[in-house]
Design a protein that fits this description.
The chain is mainly α. The chain is built from six helices and no strands. α1 (about 1-35) packs antiparallel against α2, α2 (about 45-65) packs parallel to α5 (about 130-155) and α4 packs antiparallel against α5 (about 130-155). Part of the tripartite ATP-independent periplasmic (TRAP) transport system. It is a multi-pass membrane protein. InterPro entries: DctQ, TRAP_DctQ.
């Protein structure tokens, strides 16, 4: 079940990142051409680019958990036996789930509160709530990814940090 869900999330996150990055890149390029080529500008481009980058950040947080690239302190992992190392990963994932739960709860609360007020964006005049929705969705994605981390830590045999680094080095060569 985790493998199928993981593949679906990988695909959706990758597509979302490509879409948001493409939007930001194309519109920024277009804005530069308009500004320096035609001495004019498009008033809504900056807002769309900012919201695209924000959405990329929230999707990227989930991808970071999946690929294990978030900032971490590995000193303790290097000195403890593999069985303890497993519990360190599980504890870190549980703390991540707690954070992601708060992110999801308050993100959706912000979405619904803003939707109820009818606040609009400055340039696009779109409901501001839609640009707060990625916060809650990111919380859900992070919870799923941290559950995957716990599943991986629980089902795979514990290895030392030195063995992990050697395996990573072998993959690169």
């Amino acid at each position: 079940m985790f493998d199928a869900l993981n593949k679906v999330l990988d695909f959706l996150e990758s597509v979302a990142m490509v879409v948001f990055m493409s939007i930001a890149t194309v519109l920024t390029t277009l804005q530069v051409v308009y500004r320096y080529g035609f001495n004019s500008s498009i008033f809504w481009v900056e807002e769309v680019v900012i919201y695209s980058i924000i959405c990329m950040s929230f999707v990227g947080a989930s991808m970071g958990v999946r690929h294990g690239v978030h900032i971490s302190v590995d000193v303790l992992n290097a000195f403890v036996p593999p069985a303890v190392n497993r519990w360190l990963h599980i504890t870190a994932a549980l703390l991540g789930i707690a954070f992601a739960g708060y992110l999801a709860y308050y993100g959706f609360q912000l979405y619904f509160n803003t939707l109820g007020r009818g606040q609009l964006t400055a340039a696009l005049r779109l409901p501001m709530a839609w640009f707060y929705l990625p916060i809650g969705i990111s919380g859900i994605l992070l919870i799923l990814r941290y559950l995957w981390v716990i599943h991986e830590a629980w089902t795979k045999p514990p290895v030392s940090l030195a063995e992990e680094l050697a395996a990573e080095k072998d993959k690169l060569v």
